[in-house]
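Figure S7 source data.
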Amino acid sequence: MNGIPEEPADLLISTRDLDRRAGELAHEMSQELRACVRPPVLVGVLKGSTLFLADLLRRFDIEVEVDFISISSYSQAGGSSGVVRIVKDLESDMAGRDVVIVEDIVDTGLTLNYLRRSLSERAPASLRAVTLLDKAARRIVPVELEYSGFEIPDVFVVGYGLDFQGLYRNVPEILAVKDIAKLANDPMLLVDRLFLEK
Ligand code: 5GP
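Tokens for the predicted guanosine-5'-monophosphate complex:
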């Protein structure tokens, strides 16, 4: 014991690495989607993907459109239950469009699997998915993932759009929570460390 309180979360991915990876992915996708007849549509999955989507968007060097979908995944601590329903649907018609689903994290794969099925029923010209984070070891259903930012271990993460009970989306980097039960007991635990001490 050295008297210094243990940090409740570790830095997993820095803002610098997030920034660099978003640039690489946007570049790769721009190359592949350049030949599309109409601008591709990036479908942001609310709310976790918003920061990632914004960072991708500003780095695309082709014209793209943006739409949003919001789903409720009846989450359990540390992940989703797999029961998914759309709570806010897309505004535009996806028929004949080249669509890219933009996810924050793919964990069991149930949510993305549901989204892919739902969007493919709308007759898009093509359907792809990009996720910032991939917890591949936790996959329950195999799901196609054309682009992925970082594969991460089985840890609960917050920041850069990802929340815990609505908190921490505005943390600029990705943090790995050390003790999810402790955070569940005291959801503001990281707030004091991250913001009040600055
Ligand atoms: P899946 O359906 O792939 O199991 O889970 C996808 C959803 O679970 C994500 O969109 C996210 O809402 C939630 N989720 C899974 N792992 C994490 C995590 O480590 N941190 C946060 N904040 N959400 C997670």
